[in-house]
Amino acid sequence: MRSPVGVPSQLLLSVVLVATCLACGQSTVSSVQRFESVLGHERARCLDLMVNDMDSILSLHYGETPDTYEAFLKDLVAGSLSGFDLTTEEHYLHADALGIFDPSATPKGPFNDALASVEENDPLVSAYLRDRRMMNRISPSIIAQGLLNHRARRSEYFMKRILLVELLQ
Q1: Do 74 and 146 meet the contact criterion of CB atoms below 8 Å apart?
Q2: Of 168, 162, 106, whose CA–CA distance to 134 is shortest?
Q3: What is the DSSP letter of 106?
Q4: Where are the domains positioned within the chain?
């Protein structure tokens, strides 16, 4: 089948899909940059170190597979986790000193302010903040179920940070 201008429709569809994927990638990158800018360099770096800790710990516990986070989230939903630390005490104390965690149980603070700056561009962040505003504190199993429902490759950066901050607060 050909389009009206003589270009095969499969080629036209391929071009549209590639352009869409490139736009999604740029949107994710700009969202990450905006998030880190609002959060601040030192807080963003601290969160990066803590996410790296969590990645390493989960890889040891679940093995290095593409489904590591999915398995972890499913275990959180089922309540079948044996206790293990997700980050080093040093990184946790540094994050706490930087004010990343909000002890008041209200959806405020630097982390949530930074998420709010990208809320329009990321459905996962939008859903999380909406639920967080309604419930204040959310149980780990509900957070995990929500992340499983909204899991998308382009949201993995935010998924890991939301999960980490919620589990450590």
Answers
A1: no
A2: 106
A3: S
A4: 28-168
